[in-house]
Amino acid sequence: MIERVSRAPKWGIWALCVAVAVGLQVAFASSESFPAGLDHTFSDPIDDFGRWQQSARRTNVLFTGFFTPLSDMVGWALDTVESVLLWVPWYVLPAAIFVVVARTKGWVVGLIPAAVMVYPGLVGLWEVTIDTFALMIISVSIAVALGVPLGVWGALNTRVEKSIRPVLDAMQTVPAPVYFLPMLMLFGIGRVPATFATVIYALPPVVRLTTLGIREVPPAAVEASEMFGATKRQTMTRVQLPMALPTIMTGVSQTIMMALGIVVLATLLGAGGLGQEIMETLSQRRTGRGFATGLAVVAIAIVLDRLGRALAVTDRSKLPGRKVMAGAAVAIVGLTVFGLASGITEFPEVWSVKIFDPIDNGVVWIRDNLRWLTRGFNDLVVADFYVPVRDLLTETIAWPVLLWIGTFVGWRIGGVRLAVFSLSMMVAVGLIGMWNQSLDTLTQVVAAVILSVAIAVPVGVWAGRNPRVEAFLGPILDALQTIPSLVYIIPAVIFFTVGVVPGIVASVLYAIVPGIRITALGIREVPAESIEAAQLFGATRRQTMLGVRLPLAAPTIMAGINQVIMMVLAMVIISGLVGGGALGFAAVSAVKRSDLGIGFEVGFAIVAIAMILDRTTAAVADRLRPVAGH
Amino acid sequence: MSDPQLTSVNAASLAGDNIFKVFGPKPARALEMAVAGVSRDDILRETGNTVAVRDVSFDVVPGETFVVMGLSGSGKSTLIRCIAQLVELTQGSVSLNGRDLTAMSEKELRDVRRNNMSMVFQHFGLFPHRRVIDNVAYGLEVQGIDRAARHKRALEILDIVGLGGWGDHYPQELSGGMQQRVGLGRALAVEPDVLFFDEPFSALDPLIRRDMQNELLRLQADMGRTIVFITHDFDEAIKLGDRIAIMKDGEFDQVGTAHELLSNPATDYVREFTEDVSRTKVLTAGHVARAEKSGDPMATIIVGAEQPIDTILGTLLSTDEPVAVRGTNGELIGVVDRSAVIELVGGT
């Protein structure tokens, strides 16, 4: 145990590591890539299954009796919600949003999301936005309907919670496109599989926070209820659930944000809506339109975020009375009736064009005038890093060497368990024939992580030390965190066209936010006494930073880097949509072509990489904790 | 002062028999050791179990206020939860009016809770999502009493506990003392025969605490319920309790009236508490009265037997004559003179 606490690894062991690596390299120098001995072992049966389910869809009772009716039901719900939203006059939606937000946050705050909601209409995307909205409403409703009971069950039963938790953890490390294939298998293509993929992806927060909320209800309140002779059900519905409601609502609002992220991506499954609009405009190089569509997604993100926050309010005493709310409801009904009666229901077409042209022109102008910078950056990343590193990993270095290094590093950092885990995952990835593509993806991830850390850590340190910087960055980071991942790809593609670089740039943009956040947190949390002690001994600012602040904040910063890595990986996969290549491209094309066998292999490789990276960085963070406990 | 809504004669008797409560992984083994008299620390070391309550028995007569006083870790909080059946007893039984609570089905127990007992909690245990009136009406609500009836009752109770007009507020808008009045009102609304108080005033500042103690004495004078009251404050125990149990390491060290504890502490532990207590506050004229052989009161100054010494100190010290002490029916109990008081104040 003492050995694990010591930080400086012994030189001898590393020398041995290098020696073995060199030996393996010499021995296997001429060998081919990883022997994909199990290339068809798993994919063929899955393909067979895929073919079987295609034919069984009309005959097998599993489909005719369960999946198809379920699919029909969800499809019907989606249609209904969408047609209702399109049937009511367009201004009813912003008005309703205003009422919900203003109820808890006040008039002024309520006006912001209501105004923002008008934007998609202004750029001529009203109907597409309503598509996406309907998908959101149904997915989030299903997620809440499943997640709250599951969370309650977990809160009441520790064993249930213990078995749910690792599943939820895993669900959050797996990049979204991996979810799509099984959904495709069960529900075919269209909005229904998209709905279910969204439900699964967005489920964890509402389950977790429901469990947390119920657990956090003060025991005295539960005892009091019990003491008055309430039944378990009465205590749950009258005391525990209402008292947990603010926490549950926080979970719902996180679920909403995650759902938005994937609903937009679910265009891959043929979900339509804003995601499809983005993909089409990007592939047609309609720069300004793509940008305007991206902004529409951002607008929805803002609206949904505000709605979520408005729902998660703890203090009931400040809410307006029933009369005010009844008045507001009557006003909205009145607005609807007026609109339907007068026929003024559709978003006025004339408004939309005016705002779209300046955006288009502006974006094109910026792109053309920044070309000197973007071109240079593109060349730097591709020619000086990506290509040489990828070739080094896939061609120069023999695969046994990589296996050895991966295992050895796993052992040094996380002990035997991590070493065995990493080794078996790597071997499995190699055997199913995903070795080179995984290394390609890994190279992109490394490039993006290096850039992200290089930006996020210094900025985070600065923000952590300077409250004014933090106050300035706070709202910007808040806003960035609500934006769905696909949107980050838009500016990247506008400025760097296609290839690996837009993916890397989007990854960096996406991942620096938590990096900065968590680094700042780590620096800020360094105890003041430690700093004062260093200053009393006459340490310079630089010495204090390097000797006290950074080491004490290191575990937290490492946790931030862990998040950065996971987010980068998710984005690098998504960037397969815009020519990022490697696993991302394979995943995207597998989904597009409903190619289940390959899709499974790709999905496995992605999950394997995610888990190795996650566990390794988590182990590093653990080792950095100053008091190792035992 | 008397309030018709609270007067009640259906106070209940409450008894505990050899109550044990063990927390931890191997309760059976730990229980065996506890019964055999092995010390708490040794049991913890050997089995990893904590013996929170060890062989506690008591009898509370109808209308009595029984105070359990102990420091933190003494097991008093666990004990009241055992009595109220909020935690399961490891061994022993609790009976209310002769009915064994530990043998009841869930439904029977629920009925007893709805009709016969209620509790006031240390951190109030209020429901922040309900208005004050709905907090007070909660016990009635779970019984299925309709809204109009329970609100009517809750409004009456709010007047009784001095919160008239606060019904539509939320608990967090009230001060700590007022919140505990809500807790008290909630407990009273169901007209329980037995009231449990789990350190109800310890979270309040001293002045508010004194108000609440007086409030409870006033209400109890009207309603005469059976009360089990947990506290860590010896002064509070003396002020409120008809009888006091001193609890240490899960056991009762001594049970008795304040006078008995003060004049005859059974253990050093009990003595430590009594040492700091001002005797003149606890002892009444009746306690220190010397029986007068002649039976003829020469004294012209008369005090009541129930009056604490400190309230009649001025009278006693202003005269050389003995002062007559009379009981509630006017009968002569004895006399008190200055020397007795000096002995009391000067002695330890």
Tell me about this structure:
The complex is a heterodimer of chains A (630) and B (348). Chain A has 630 residues and is an all-alpha fold. Helices cover 83% and strands 0% of the residues of chain A. In chain A, helix 10 packs parallel to helix 26 (582-592). Chain A is globular and about 80 Å long. The two termini of chain B are 39 Å apart. In chain B, helix 9 (206-223) links the parallel strand 7 and strand 8 (226-231). In chain B, helix 1 runs antiparallel to helix 2 (40-47) and helix 7 packs across helix 8 (176-189). Chain B is α/β, with parallel strands linked by helices and 348 residues long. The A-B interface holds A 218, 220-221, 223-231, 234, 238-239, 242-243, 245, 315-317 and B 81, 84, 86, 110-115, 117-119, 121-130, 138-139, 141-143, 169-170, 172-173, 186, 190, 196.
Oligomer: heterodimer
What general outline of chain B do the C-alpha atoms trace?
Answer: globular
Largest sheet descriptor of chain A: none
Indicate the structural class of chain A. Answer: mainly alpha
Query: What Rg of chain B do the Cα atoms give?
Result: 23 Å
**Unreliably modeled segments of chain A:** 1-6
The ordered H/E elements of chain A are HHHHHHHHHHHHHHHHHHHHHHHHHHH
CATH fold name of the largest domain in chain B: Rossmann fold
**Helical fraction of chain A:** over 70%
Q: In terms of topology, how is this protein built?
A:
The complex is a heterodimer of chains A (630) and B (348).
Chain A: H1 2-5, H2 11-28, H3 43-56, H4 61-87, H5 92-105, H6 107-116, H7 119-122, H8 126-156, H9 158-173, H10 177-187, H11 191-216, H12 219-227, H13 232-265, H14 273-283, H15 287-311, H16 322-342, H17 350-369, H18 371-396, H19 399-431, H20 435-465, H21 467-482, H22 485-496, H23 500-524, H24 528-536, H25 541-574, H26 582-592, H27 596-624
Helix pairs in contact in A: 2-19, 3-27, 4-8, 4-11, 5-6, 5-15, 5-16, 6-15, 8-9, 8-11, 8-13, 8-14, 9-11, 10-11, 10-26, 10-27, 11-13, 12-13, 13-15, 14-15, 15-17, 15-22, 18-20, 19-27, 20-21, 20-23, 20-25, 21-23, 22-23, 23-25, 24-25, 25-27, 26-27
Chain B: E1 14-23, H1 27-36, H2 40-47, E2 50-60, E3 65-70, H3 76-83, E4 91-96, E5 99-100, H4 106-115, E6 117-120, H5 132-136, H6 138-142, H7 147-160, H8 176-189, E7 194-198, H9 206-223, E8 226-231, H10 234-240, E9 243-248, E10 251-256, H11 258-263, H12 268-275, H13 279-282, H14 285-288, E11 302-304, H15 309-317, E12 323-326, E13 332-336, H16 338-346
